[in-house]
C-alpha cells in the first residue's frame, strides 16, 4: 500500500516518470496525500539548488526567486498553477454551483484566473526574494515548497466532501482521518524548528501561515462549491506556498 501511495503522490504532484500504482482506492489516496511532502522532496531540492546557483552567479534576488518558483512550477507540470487559475475562475464567474464547476472543468483561464495567478506569483517571487536578500533563501525555498504540499493532508481530512462524484477530488476527499492530519501537521511544525539559518520559531510560523491560508481557501471552496476538486487542491498548494514564503521573507 505504501508503495502505491508513494507512486500516486509522485505521479500526481511531480513530473517524475514513475509507474502507475497497481491499485488506487481510498486508503492509497489518503496515503498519497500524507506522503505528499516526501514526494515534494525532489521539488524542494530543485528550488534550493536554483537559489544556490543564483547566489553563486550573483544574480538579482528577484530573478533568482522567479527562476526557483518557475522551476518548481515546471517540475510539477504546472498543475497547481492551473488549479489556482481554474478555481479563481469558478469562484469569480457565477454564484451557481453547477455553473462554477463547469467553468472549472473547461480548463481555459479567464480574466479572473489570469489575474489571480499573476498576483499570487508576484507575491511568491517577492516573498522568496526577500528571504534570499535576508540570507536564508535556500532554506526558505526548500521549506516553502515542502510546507505547501504538507497542507494537502488538511484538504483531504475526513469530513471534507468532494464537489463532484468523479475526478481527483472524489478520490482523495475525506480519505485521511483527523488524527493523522493533526499528527502530520504537528510533524511539519516540529521539523520546521530545525530549519537551518532561522530562529527556531520561524519555521513553525511559516507552517501555521500556510495552514491558515490553505484552510481559508478550503473553507471558501467547500461552502461555495460544495467540496474539493483537483483544482481546489492545486489552489491550496499555491496559496500555502505564498503564505509560507511571506512568513519567511524578513
UniProtKB/TrEMBL annotation:
Q: What HAMAP family does the record point to? A: CobS
What lineage, starting at the top, does this entry show? Bacteria, Bacillati, Actinomycetota, Actinomycetes, Pseudonocardiales
What is any one GO biological process for this UniProt entry? cobalamin biosynthetic process
Q: Main role?
A: Joins adenosylcobinamide-GDP and alpha-ribazole to generate adenosylcobalamin (Ado-cobalamin). Also synthesizes adenosylcobalamin 5'-phosphate from adenosylcobinamide-GDP and alpha-ribazole 5'-phosphate.
Organism encoding this protein = Amycolatopsis thermoflava
- Gene Ontology terms for molecular function: adenosylcobinamide-GDP ribazoletransferase activity; cobalamin 5'-phosphate synthase activity
User: Which keywords annotate this record?
Assistant: Cell membrane, Cobalamin biosynthesis, Magnesium, Membrane, Transferase, Transmembrane, Transmembrane helix
Q: What is this protein called?
A: Adenosylcobinamide-GDP ribazoletransferase
Q: How does it sit in the membrane?
A: Multi-pass membrane protein
Q: Which Pfam families does the record associate with it? A: CobS (PF02654)
Q: Which gene encodes it?
A: cobS
Pathway assignment: Cofactor biosynthesis; adenosylcobalamin biosynthesis; adenosylcobalamin from cob(II)yrinate a,c-diamide: step 7/7
Enzymatic reactions: alpha-ribazole + adenosylcob(III)inamide-GDP = adenosylcob(III)alamin + GMP + H(+); alpha-ribazole 5'-phosphate + adenosylcob(III)inamide-GDP = adenosylcob(III)alamin 5'-phosphate + GMP + H(+)
Q: Which family does it belong to?
A: Belongs to the CobS family.
Write down the required cofactor(s).
Mg(2+)
Q: Does the keyword Secreted apply?
A: no
